Amino acid sequence: MLLQLQKITKGYGEPGTHSYRAVLKDLHFTLNPGEKVAIVGPSGSGKTTLLNLIGALDQPEAGKVLFEGKDITGYSKTELATFRNKHLGFVFQMHHLMPQLSLWENVLLPLLPQGNKITKEQKDWAEYLIKKVGIWEQRHQKPSEMSGGECQRTAVVRALINKPKLILADEPTGALDEENAAALTDLLKKLSDDEGVALVTVTHSAMLAEQMDKKYVLKNGKLSS
Ligand SMILES: Nc1ncnc2c1ncn2[C@@H]1O[C@H](COP(=O)(O)OP(=O)(O)OP(=O)(O)O)[C@@H](O)[C@H]1O
Which ranges carry the ABC transporter domain (predicted)? Predict the structure, then answer.
């Protein structure tokens, strides 16, 4: 098992006061290595909140998050940052690329906090991924000089640059037109299959959800299939 969420509770506001509102309640979730799942649900049901917990961007009030059997719930902020950098890749609705950097520089950016120089092996991996998603020609262009679909493909490559075990995607096709959304959906699926990376994606897109191995609905604080 890659990831397990045990009896997770998470809300906003001060617990025990009127301001408190529970969003996730005794929620369970398991994910196997290489497994692809979609999380769907009504607006405000807590999908982003859940993704933030899975992505170690936030901590639950109660319950445990286990990654490869290890409890990461008690990790400090620094430990969580190291954990994210090593094991996870993120793709958001808006690409979050650095506007002043080229496609190539944006892709290599996550490797820089590890200090030292970027290795030939890492550059080869970047080149392989960029070619695979079909944007090698654009590698010297800045985000403002690329289409929305090209930016989003760059974001997918960037998410894979650290060879993560899990990619978390929050509405990755949300800002794309139908054609580009379909292309990105195929790409995410293919890369996940080829590289054996697990994928958890929050989406409103039925097309994207159907391409995944499983679909869960988040409602009333819990997941159901
Ligand atoms: N930082 C916060 N402080 C207070 N309330 C919050 C905060 N973040 C989210 N919420 C509330 O928690 C609930 C769940 O929000 P969340 O963004 O996880 O839902 P969602 O399912 O991702 O929604 P959408 O599909 O609209 O993006 C919402 O009612 C939201 O208003």
Answer: 3-225
Return the pLDDT at 22: 92
H helices present in the chain, as ranges: 47-54, 77-87, 103-108, 120-132, 148-160, 178-195, 206-211
Q: What is the pTM of this model?
A: 0.91
What number does the ligand 1 atom closest to the CA of 13 have?
4
Is 5 inside a domain boundary? no
Residue to probe by mutation, ligand 1, list 39, 43, 45, most atoms within 8 Å of CB = 45
ipTM, 2 dp: 0.95
CATH of the domain at 147: 3.40.50.300
Provide residues with CB under 6 Å of ligand 1.
12, 23, 41, 43-49
Count of domains in the chain? 1
- Domain assignment of residue 117, yes or no: yes
Q: What is the pLDDT of residues 99-116, one digit of tens each?
A: 999 999 999 998 887 677
Residue 183 lies in a domain: yes
What are the pLDDT digits (tens) for 183-202? 888 889 998 999 899 999 99
The C-alpha torsion from 177 through 179 and 184 to 185, rounded to 10°, is: 100
Q: How far is the CA of 23 from the centre of ligand 1 (A)?
A: 8
97 CA → ligand 1 middle, Å:
24
Residue span of the structural domain in which 171 resides: 33-59+76-224
Structure tokens at 111: 């490797």
Please give the pLDDT value at position 35. 97
